[in-house]
Amino acid sequence: MDIKRVAIDAVTETIVMTVVHMDYKGQVAKRINEKMPLAQVKGFRKGAVPKDLVEKQYGKGIKQEEVKKVVDLALERFVQSERLNLLGTPLLKENEGLNWDAEELVFEYEIGLVPNFELDLEAKNDIVKYVVTADDKLIEGQVARIQKQFGTAIPQEAVVEGADLKGTFANEAEGINNTTTIALSVFKDKATADKFIGKKVGDVVTVNTKGLFEDDHQLMDFLKVGHDNVHDLAVDVDFTIEAITVSEPAELNQELFDKLFGEGKVASLEDLKAKIKEDAESQFAQQADQKLLGDVTEFLIENTKFDLPAEFLKKWLQTVGEKKLSPEEAEAEYARSEKGLRFQLIEGRAMAQSDIKITFEDLKTFTSKNIRQQMAQFGQTNPTEEEVQGIVARVLSNQDEVKRLSDQVVAEKLLELFKEKANPTTKEVTYEEFIAASYGE
Fold it and tell me: How far apart are CA 267 and CA 294, in angstroms?
């Protein structure tokens, strides 16, 4: 068999395979001989059919099967021997005019290659690494929320100053229908809050979404409006009152502190504020890391230039999966997945350049840390090593979980690499400033 590569462009090639009689005749003859005792042809007893008739009836099908086996095996070995780094799998070019009686059979497979490119993780950039601090406003607000959450809700017949309302915001045309609990103090203008004063359960109050809250993003929380729609949204919504309460704040005492954080861990208002600040900034750090990872990802995608075998991948997408795609569907799917594919290649190159590898011990350590954090959330602050490792073993016996956790370990390692190599500018901000930066506003 003769096999050769023919370049179409830098990332697309054709593998041309020329199969001759010697490549498959022995196996075809063997299959014909095996078929003879079982062959059934009208006018002959089973097992007594002349060989030429067996060949006539079954030979073409057997030849096609054996040629396919030879070609598939040769293609696999050729890809391995040439160390071809493929995107997708080889696609057989259609050849409706193939003459199966010819001495030579030619098969052509189109392949897409992983592009060769340079990755500069230290390229000049304007990426910011945010350090988010919990300011006094946030901490005082959280203290007030704790007192309210653990306070006593006293039902009211009518809405009064400082009341909390349970009800449903609705606007059928905008697809808004969300039941929520809201405090009158949340509204931006006192005039809006005053519309509710004196109203009772079952009453409907109509308000406009424009400037309803101090921050338009609160429409996402209370009305479940998508982020893309919150800005400049100016529609009337009806709020149907379902319950009215006034909250008597919980007393900030040792009983409440122990209930929140465990016995003796917080002993004063100062301790409570310090704990709120610590917990909040820990969460903010995780959010800031995710933003940094996203920002570096976008920068690398935009600034690392390489060609993809786009036309090949669009054809390949038509052939994979249970449902075959039309050319138009494959075009749309490629457009959706191109950025993700580019980052997969960048991610792989970054790991290779920095010799980053994921070991089973990495997975165990990462999983153990996650499990301890989850157990702590449910009050199990001191689990034994045996308990933790038992859960780790069960989790890592699930292949889907292994894949999910592996992706998280890779992201964690890449984050540390990007922090080091990308050398982002550090900027300390409040949480409100961080949210504004995250949404690009």
Answer: 40
Instruction: Round to whole Å and give the CA distance between 71 and 185.
Output: 74
CA distance 355 to 293: 19
**Res 130: pLDDT:** 95
Statement: residue 11 has pLDDT above 60? yes
Identify the weakest region by mean pLDDT among 185-189, 193-197, 224-228, 253-257: 224-228
Q: Quote the CA–CA distance of 226 and 319 in Å, as a whole number.
A: 35
Q: Rounded to whole angstroms, what are the CA distances from 429 to 133, 135, 165, 437?
A: 6, 9, 33, 10
User: How far, in Å, are 150, 386, 391, 395 from residue 398 at the CA level?
Assistant: 40, 19, 12, 6
- From the number of C-beta atoms within 10 Å of its C-beta (0-12, 13-18, 19+), residue 260 rates as middle
Structure-token match 């209930």, residue found: 259
Report which residue type is found at 419.
K
What residue spans of 40-197 are helical by DSSP H? 51-81, 136-149, 190-194
Alpha carbon separation from 66 to 4, 109, 381 (Å, rounded):
21, 18, 64
Tens digit of each residue's pLDDT (9 = 90 or more) over 279-297 = 999 999 999 999 999 999 9
pLDDT at position 135 over 60: yes
Residue 4: how many CB atoms within 10 A of its CB? 10
The model carries a pTM of 0.72
How far apart (Å, rounded) are the C-alpha atoms in residues 94 and 187? 66
